[in-house]
Design brief:
The complex is a heterodimer of chains A (185) and B (176).
Chain A lengths: L1 H13 L8 E4 L5 E8 L2 E7 L2 E6 L9 E7 L3 E2 L3 H7 L12 E13 L2 E10 L2 E12 L4 E11 L16 E15 L1
Antiparallel strand pairs in A: 1-11, 2-3, 2-11, 3-6, 4-5, 5-7, 7-8, 8-9, 9-10, 10-11
Chain B lengths: L6 H24 L6 H30 L11 H31 L5 E2 L3 E2 L8 H35 L4 H4 L5
Antiparallel strand pairs in B: 1-2
Helix pairs in contact in B: 1-2, 2-3, 3-4
The chains are: A mainly beta (185), B mainly alpha (176).
Chain lengths: 185, 176
C-alpha cells in the first residue's frame, strides 16, 4: 500500500506536464444541449435528448482541438408535446428530409483563463452557416466540462418558414446553451 | 342608505363583466385552433385579460369588504334574499378561481405568464403534464359554472327590473 502510494507520487512528480490529458470521450449522461426562445414575450426552454459528439482537446494544445457534434432532431423537447410535433414539419426542421443537425469545428483559439473561441460550421435543414462559439473549460478530477452559450438566428436556417417567419410571435433569436462532459487520459 | 353601488364598484363591475365577456368566447375558440402564430397570440391575449380580471376582482373584493352594498328591497322574499347572497358570494369566488386556475394551468404546462408580454408573473407550480391536464379540466368546469351563474344573475336582475318593476338596473349604475 505504502509502496503503491510512493510509486504513484513518483509518477505524478515525474510526469512531464500536469495537464497532459487529452479529452477524447464525451459522457452523454452528463452532457446537455439546451436552448431557449421567446414566444409572445414568454421564455420557452427546451433541449435535445440525443446527440453524439466526438472530440479531442488537450488544454496544452488548444489550437489542435477538434469537435464534431450530431444532434438527433427527433429527440427535441420544445416545451410542449404540440411544439415537439410541430417542429418536425416542413416549415420547421423538415425532419424527414433533414433528421439531424451537425456541427464541425474548424478552429479553436485560446482566450485565456480557460476560455476558448470555437469556430466551425453548423449544418441544419440543409444549410451550412459559420458559427463562433465561446466555450469555458471546467477541469475536473476525472471529467471535464465544456460550457458555452451562443445566440443563433433561426431564420438563417429557414427554421420556422411561412406563417412562422413572423418574429413578433416566435423570436428569431434562439439561445443555445450547452455543457459537454468528457473524460480523457 | 343609497340604493346604488358607489362609482368605483360600478366601474369595476362593468369592466370585469366586459373582460369576461371577451375572455370566455376567446378561450372556447382558441382551444380548438391548430397550432399557429394566431393561436399563440390569442392564448397570450386570453391570459393577459385573465390576469387583468384577477387584479380587478381583487380590487372589487377589497371594495366589498370595506363597503356595504345597497340594501335589497324590504319586500323581497326571504328565499330570494338568500339566493342573491349565495350567488353573489359564488360569483366573487369564481371570478377569482377562474383566472387563478388558468394561471396555475399555464405554469403546470410549462408556459410562464407574462402580463401584456412585459411583466413576467411567477410560476405558481412546477411543470407537470398531469397536473396541467387536471387544472385545465378544472379551469373549464369552473368557467361553465361561472357562465351558469352569470346567466342566473342577469336573468334575476332583469326579472326584478322589468317584470317586478323595481329599479334594479339602477343599482349597478344604469339609468337614472
Amino acid at each position: 500500500m505504502m509502496l503503491k502510494s510512493l510509486t504513484l507520487l513518483a509518477a505524478l512528480t515525474l510526469a512531464p506536464a500536469a495537464h497532459a490529458i487529452e479529452y477524447r470521450s464525451v459522457v452523454p449522461a452528463q452532457s446537455r444541449i439546451g436552448f431557449e426562445f421567446e414566444q409572445m414575450g414568454v421564455k420557452i426552454p427546451g433541449h435535445f435528448r440525443r446527440f453524439t459528439a466526438q472530440m479531442a482537446f488537450d488544454p496544452a494544445k488548444p489550437q489542435s482541438a477538434q469537435a464534431t457534434l450530431e444532434i438527433d432532431l427527433a429527440s427535441i423537447d420544445a416545451g410542449s408535446p404540440e411544439a415537439d410535433e410541430e417542429s418536425a414539419g416542413k416549415l420547421w426542421f423538415n425532419r424527414t428530409a433533414f433528421p439531424k443537425a451537425r456541427f464541425v469545428s474548424s478552429q479553436v483559439r485560446a482566450l485565456g483563463n480557460n476560455r476558448f473561441e470555437l469556430r466551425g460550421t453548423l449544418m441544419l435543414k440543409g444549410k451550412a452557416r459559420p458559427m463562433v462559439i465561446p466555450v469555458s473549460f471546467v477541469p475536473g478530477k476525472t471529467t471535464a466540462f465544456f460550457d458555452g452559450s451562443f445566440v443563433l438566428k433561426r431564420l438563417d436556417f429557414g427554421i420556422g418558414e411561412g406563417m412562422w417567419a413572423d418574429v413578433e410571435t416566435v423570436a428569431n433569436e434562439v439561445t443555445v446553451k450547452f455543457r459537454i462532459a468528457a473524460t480523457g487520459k | 342608505m343609497s340604493l346604488r353601488y358607489t362609482a368605483p364598484a360600478v366601474v369595476l363591475h362593468w369592466l370585469i363583466a366586459g373582460l369576461i365577456f371577451i375572455a370566455f368566447p376567446l378561450g372556447v375558440y382558441m382551444s380548438d385552433l391548430p397550432l399557429s402564430p394566431t393561436r399563440l397570440q390569442l392564448y397570450s391575449y386570453h391570459k393577459w385579460i385573465g390576469i387583468s380580471v384577477l387584479l380587478l376582482v381583487g380590487l372589487r373584493i377589497v371594495w366589498r369588504l370595506t363597503h356595504r352594498p345597497p340594501a335589497l328591497p324590504d319586500d323581497l322574499p326571504r328565499w330570494q334574499r338568500a339566493a342573491s347572497h349565495a350567488v353573489h358570494g359564488l360569483l366573487y369566488l369564481l371570478i377569482l378561481a377562474v383566472p387563478l386556475t388558468g394561471w396555475l394551468m399555464s405554469s403546470a404546462k410549462g408556459f410562464q405568464t407574462v402580463w401584456f408580454g412585459v411583466l413576467p408573473l411567477p410560476d405558481l407550480v412546477e411543470k407537470n403534464r398531469e397536473l396541467g391536464q387536471v387544472l385545465g379540466n378544472a379551469h373549464q368546469f369552473l368557467n361553465y359554472l361561472l357562465l351558469a351563474l352569470v346567466i342566473l344573475h342577469v336573468v334575476a336582475a332583469l326579472k326584478h327590473h322589468f317584470h317586478e318593476r323595481r329599479p334594479f338596473l339602477q343599482r349597478m349604475g344604469l339609468g337614472k
